[in-house]
Amino acid sequence: MELTGNTFSFPWEASLMEWLQTHLSGAVPVISFFSAFGEELVMILIIGFLYWWYDKKAGKAIGLSVLMGITWNPLIKNIFLRRRPYFDHEGIRILRLVEPKADPMDIAAQGFSFPSGHSTNAVTMYGSLGQYFKKKWLTAAALALPLLVGFSRVVVGAHYPTDVFVGWALGVIVLLLVPWLQKKLQKDWLLYLVLLVTVLPGFFYCKSADYFTGAGLMISFMAGSLLEDRKVRFANTRSVPCGLLRLVGGLAVYFAVNFLLKAPFSKAFLDGGTTGALLVRSARYAVIAFLEFGVYPMAFVRVEGLLFRNKNQNAVSA
């Protein structure tokens, strides 16, 4: 399935991007680094730290806002179908791909441009942290990091400035709407049902991989959270060794399961952008999220009890 997309922008946008890439060429590696603060792995690390280790309630609340931003963003992208700037402007180079292993010109893999997903992610992630914990340094980060992430997306050639502006705006809407719904709808299953209704239409019209990634993660984050509430009910820890073990174990589960679920399929199929490939992608991320948020925490008490009980027993014997 080949996607083409639409080209539209203000004249000043391409000119500004070309000027920035020309005059900031020496600083591009540093500026590009800030894009990482809006990417998947950083989101996983922060939400995993909160949910598995530091504050499960915060992890669920912040994770929900972040995942709604991740899913709502491509719902909009697949309406406007705006092509990325480097597709249509010879003077703009792409210096940081969304999917580094995919063809830079593959729209299904690289995603559409409007609005900027990194900008939305940065606002929802760091804005939610500031909103929830109400610390001055987190409030400062909630203002500074989205600005740096958005600026970096323009400089690396991945987004027009207007993509970033609307990405920020969507992030702010998520920060206002999701916590408001959490307060109004006291039951988690009802909250999840309402949010799910807003997301499911994308299965009928979205053609880019980012939607199917977000939908899979969101649906199983909700299912895993409900399972944890009813069956697991693990406790957070203030033990650094236990916390590190949980975080490293969660990352290991993520990478291992992702690898195993890709194994039965050829790279050509997974990168092909067909309906089947996109559904497999969504299912893959759904399995990962359900394991991470619902099943993996079942191991905490048993594994930590075994490891640290034996350690304590050895210390007493010595």
Topology:
Layout: H1 11-23, H2 28-33, H3 40-54, H4 56-80, H5 85-88, H6 107-110, H7 117-133, H8 136-155, H9 161-184, H10 188-199, H11 202-205, H12 209-232, H13 240-262, H14 267-270, H15 275-295, H16 299-317
Helix pairs in contact: 3-4, 3-13, 4-7, 4-9, 4-12, 7-8, 7-9, 8-9, 10-12, 12-15, 13-15
Could you characterize the architecture of this molecule?
The longest helix has 25 residues. α7 packs antiparallel against α8, α12 packs parallel to α15 and α13 runs antiparallel to α15. It is globular and about 60 Å long. It is mainly α and 318 residues long.
Radius of gyration: 21 Å
Gap between N and C termini: 66 Å
Poorly predicted ranges (pLDDT <50, ≥5 residues)?
312-318
Largest β-sheet summary: none
Quaternary status: single chain
Helix percentage: over 70%
The average pLDDT is 90
Total number of β-strand segments?
0
Structural class: mainly alpha
Q: What are the secondary-structure elements, in order, as H or E?
A: HHHHHHHHHHHHHHHH
Q: Percent of residues in beta strands? A: under 5%
Shape: globular
DSSP summary: helix tally: 16
Write a concise keyword list for the protein shown above.
74% helix, disordered C terminus, 318 residues, mainly alpha, 16 helices
In short:
This protein has helices spanning 11-23, 28-33, 40-54, 56-80, 85-88, 107-110, 117-133, 136-155, 161-184, 188-199, 202-205, 209-232, 240-262, 267-270, 275-295, 299-317. It is mostly helical and 318 residues long. 39% of the residues are buried.
